[in-house]
Fold:
Amino acid sequence: MNYPAQPLIDNHGRIIDYIRIAVTDRCNLRCYYCMPEEGIDYVPRDHLLHYEEIERIVRILAAMGVKKVRITGGEPFIRRDIIHLMESITRTPGIEALHITTNGTVTKNYIPQLQAMGVKGVNLSLDTLDRERFLKITRRDMLDEVLGTMHALVDANIPVKINMVVLGGINDDEIVTMARLAEKHPVDVRYIEEMPFNGGGHAQQTTWRDHHFIAERLRSEFPGLTLIPSEKSSTATNYGIHGFQGRLGIIPAFSRTFCGSCNRIRLTPEGVFKTCLYDRGMFNIRDVMRSGASDDQLADTIREAVGHRATNGFEAERQAMQFPYLDNSRESMSTIGG
Ligand code: SAM
Ligand code: SF4
Structure:
């Protein structure tokens, strides 16, 4: 491949410098908004991207200007030897930041290695501080493990963002309680709108809570809530409160107000390359690689896909619905990676 390659810019002039890689669709929790109790039809192991293949993709993308990688899943820490892939990504020339999204249930043991490799941040999913509710939402009794991970990450000085999916009638009365985590600890708390990717596990919420509802709840409890300017590509509207150690953020994941500055692409565990959370995938990079494509050919295929990117999540969704034979009503966030 000719280095350095041209930067990756989509057909709307947006620079792509961030990839989110879901390394597995398997998970040890069963969050009801993500997958049904019985799980989903997992990708057979030989269909997964191998680590060497992921390393190659990251190397090619880094040469095209991608600087940030997020490892997600499913639960990334239940894929064998995941630490080795993470270490290798941090050593890739051009990659400046490795971030991880995890449910925190088994993450604690890996923290020394994460610290040593210089992970820039961990997003920890936590929707409630109530044990019974945690069990109800995730169908597993593991709140203590997640809290243990949060404290250990803070002790290790790894920046932590808590991700709370706000669920009407389930945990929306904990918006303020969760905010107080950012008062007591140096962690950011981010509220995420529920999206319709639950593996067919349940119908969309009747009491769906949007970003306006969340902002109102925070404003009424914290009159001193102050808007903090964020990076252009940020999906969150961020706020500070005097005396709080961390920030609060609201992510309108379903309302999609941030698409105009979106800088990210996604890779599913079996290599589907997505230029939008809401698209059906542009092509399968694993198949292209396994057919013997060179680095240059891979780079061209990536550039071609990025050159046909939807303007926003609504357009991507409309386009996806033009292919009704590709039923994605059972799509789970554990395949997309969040
Ligand atoms: N298992 C890891 C975890 O839970 O952090 C990583 C994968 S998970 C799919 C990534 C993020 O997607 C989590 O923060 C999770 O809360 C969020 N998520 C899953 N299903 C969602 C849905 N239907 N709507 C909104 N967010 C969702
Ligand atoms: Fe697992 Fe994360 Fe999905 Fe919960 S949100 S079931 S932890 S992949």
About this structure: The CA atoms of residues 235 and 329 lie 25 Å apart. The radius of gyration is 19 Å.
